[in-house]
Every structure is written in C-alpha cells, then in structure tokens.
Amino acid sequence: MRAIHHWIDGQEAPGKSGRTADVFNPATGEVQAKVDLATKAEVDAAIERAAEAQVKWGATNPQRRARVMMEMVRLLNRDMDKMAEMLSSEHGKTFPDAKGDIQRGLEVIEFSIGAPHLLKGEFIDGAGPGIDMYSMRQPLGVVAAITPFNFPAMIPLWKLGPALASGNAVILKPSERDPSVPNMIAALFKEAGLPDGVLQVVHGDKEAVDAILDSEIIQAVGFVGSTPIAQYIYERAAQTGKRAQCFGGAKNHMIIMPDADMDQAADALVGAGYGAAGERCMAISVAVPVGEETADRLIEKLVPRIEKLKVGPWTAGNDIDYGPVVTRAAKENILRLVERGVEQGAELVVDGRDFSLQGYEDGFFVGPHLFDRVTPDMDIYKTEIFGPVLSTVRAASYEEALGLAMDHEYGNGTAIFTRDGDAARDFASRCNIGMVGINVPIPVPLAYFTFGGWKKSGFGDLNQHGPDAFRFYTRTKTVTSRWPSGIKEGAAFNFKAMD
Ligand code: NAD
Questions:
Q1: pTM of the full predicted structure?
Q2: Which CATH topology does 252-438 take?
Q3: Deepest in the core among 245, 256, 439, 480, taking most CB within 10 A?
Q4: Each residue of 435-448: pLDDT tens digit?
Q5: Does residue 211 have its Cβ closer than 6 Å to ligand 1?
C-alpha cells in the first residue's frame, strides 16, 4: 500500500500519529494509498520551523523570489503529464481536465513573477517641510492554506504563488482525499530553489486544521471548501486575530433569455453542469430559462446532449466527458438528493439513477440527471449537490430570473445567455454575485483579475489571485520621515575639527 507522508523541511516526513486516511481510486472504489494525519504537536513543530525559515526568505529580495516562480513555471510544464495522471487517479477527473486544473494554477505562478512590481509601495515627496511619506508592503510571516479536494493543484498554487512571492512561509493543509499532487508541488518548489522549511505540507483532518487556527504564529488563513467549514474557519481564525479569506460552496444560476442562441446555451449548460461530474464550485447547477417557450426549447436541446454524455474512468481516453465522483459517500449523498427531488415533485427528465459501468461496478460513478420544473422551496434547489445533476427552474420574466439568482444564499458565479446587450449589462450590474459570465457559462477570472464569491460563498475581505492576493499576504507599513536641514546649508572647503 502506497503511503503519503507530510512534506517538512524540504523532504517527505512520515507522520507520527499512527492515524491515516484512505485515498481511493474513485474509478474502481479501491483504496490506493494511505495518507498520514498530523497531530497538533506535528503541526506546531512544522509551523515553528517555518517561522525560522521565513526570516531569511522574507529578507530575500523580491526579484530573487520571483526567479523561484519563473523556474516553477518551467518545472510545472515539464511535469504536467505526470502530475495530471496522479491527479486523475486520486480525484477521478478526466486527463484533459486534470491538466486544466494544473494549468489554471500555473497561471497564478506566472502572475506571481510580477511580485517586485506588485510589492511596491507609495511615495509622496514633500508632504510637509522636509517631510516625505512612503508605504511598504511587508510579508505577514507564516500563513496557512487549507484547500479542498476538487482542485488539488489549482487552489494550492493560487495560494502558494502570491504568499511565497510576497516573502511568507506557508503551511499547506490540502484535502486528505487527493493529497499526492500537493506533495509533488512542494517537491517542485524545492527543485525551483525555494529554501527548505518555507513551504511545509501537513496532511490531516480537523485536528490539524484546529492546530493551525489556534497557532499564535500563523498570521493569515486562506481557506477554500464547503460553506459550513468556511464559516467555522473564518470565525475561529478571527478569535485569534488572524486575517482570513474563506471561500465556500455555490449554487450557480444560468439565465437563458428567449433571444439566446439555444444550441450555444445548451452546449454551455452541458459542459458547465456535468464537466468534472459537477464537482466544481463554478459549475452551473441551476438553469433558468425565461418564458415557457424558451424552457421547452431548451429542454428539447438538452436531453439528447445529456443522454450522449460519455461517463468513464480517466484511463479510457480523452473523449470521456466526466469521471466518477470523489468518494462513495459523495455518490450516496447525490443520489439521496435526487430521490428527494423526485419526492418533492420535480420532473426527472433524464434519470441517471440506474447508471452502472461495466467493469467498474464498485467505482463512484453517477449517471447524468436533469430536473425540470424545480421550485425554490425544494431541497435540490436550496442545497449544493456537487454532482452531475442540473435543475431547471422556469421563470416567467427576466426580473423573476434575476430575483432567483439574487435571493439564493450562495453568490459565487452566475451567467446570462442573451443577444441583448442591455439585458446583459443590467444583469452584470445588479446581481449580488461575485463572478458573472455573459454568454460564458463558467466565468473564472484569469490570474491577473481576482476570484471570489459573495454572500455565503465567501467570508472575509480580498479575493484570491490578482492584486488582491498580494494585499492579503502583505501588510502595509507607512513611514513619515523628516530630515531637518543640516550639512547642505554651507559648503566647507577645509577639514574641520569635530567640535
Ligand atoms: P470541505 O469543506 O469538506 O474540505 C475543505 C478542507 O477543510 C479540507 O482540507 C478538509 O480537510 C478541511 N475540513 C473538512 N472538515 C473539516 C472540519 N470539520 N474542521 C476543520 N477542517 C475541515 O470541502 P471539499 O469537499 O473538500 O470541497 C468541496 C467544497 O468546496 C464545495 O462546497 C465547493 O463548492 C467548495 N469550493 C469552493 C470554491 C470557491 O472558490 N468558492 C472552490 C472550490 C471548491
């Protein structure tokens, strides 16, 4: 059985707790590895060592730190396929999708090469007589990243690029469900020139997370995961005076206006709803066609597309549309919610409940589901299902559709499909949601913009990546300096005694 250890002081470090978690191959349902779960004492020791290593790293000039990022870009590209294979085998997503996971993280490392520019402060000359004022951005010290299973490369890299390039040391606590890729990332950072101890990977569960939250040394916590845990981490981090940005779950609506290109909208919905088995925080899980006729046309276009979806293991080739979900518990939860939808009166237009894949009967595969005539009081509407289940809520008007998206407790992403610029502009301006797509179903901003949801999808200030991340991982110091007039007042042409 493969053992996955912590990564401490630049090398693999077997855990001492005697506790491990199973890492599955979601396609077969078999346990393929055991990952160590850290104790509080192990986490504390990793943090203390990181604090020592951070002193020198924080004092290293930003351009040298940026060179580590440059080399990291080369190494991630070099090892892309190897990492993507490991990612697919532990997560279950298809090989091209796993490469996308790494690529979107790599782009934030590319952005972090700009650290010297992003870390510049402000300066005003002559704020008063002989007075200048300037600000500097300094690293926080040791910061922590607690990340989810669904993007085991991208989200750690989103945290590591800006945090490390700003001069911090990082304690990364990745998801225990697919922990190998974060270790591979740590090994690549070492190869890229990052000093030992500046990046520590501790694997674990609540015990490790609580040790991070209670540490006096940790200055900031970046979390991504489900909303109840995001809220818990935000509150507990605040109790010990830490900065926290905690991103949570989602229920992303896509509005389809009567004038939309219906083929384009249906293609977009199928990709955004079922890609990665719906295990994306930016997946579209609610389609909101405006008007009965639009709804009928949309369903007519969706059904054959969904029925044609190819579900299978990543090893079956690149034409697989999506793979298994991450655990048996996730599969059971999805199917339980589907049953609830049927009980509560939603119309199950595409029924994936009996889906089974020959040769992979024990794998965590879930067939695609499409619900029509879902209403806001149903559990399948209120809950984040995080599986290949798309719900359709029919709206009578644009205002009703907008209201649905706005009244939902989550506010991560949303999209509108229309040919009308006025409707699109109004939607983007008025909705209370962090990321908006106009004829784009999954509007994940590029590395040089920032990523973050509103409402219960995001707690705290400042978003991930882009300039916000550099603000999150640094604190500002403002200096007022006055140099009274002195030596320049009169030139001296002879040696003077020091009287
Ligand atoms: P999760 O909340 O179960 O786990 C996230 C992290 O928290 C993991 O590292 C896990 O070990 C830790 N954790 C779990 N339970 C804990 C507890 N009781 N106490 C302390 N720590 C705990 O989330 P997940 O299932 O790994 O990821 C899926 C969720 O993440 C979905 O809700 C998805 O929408 C969300 N997500 C959000 C974003 C975003 O940017 N908003 C991005 C990706 C995923």
A1: 0.96
A2: Aldehyde Dehydrogenase; Chain A, domain 2 (3.40.309)
A3: 256
A4: 999 999 999 999 99
A5: no
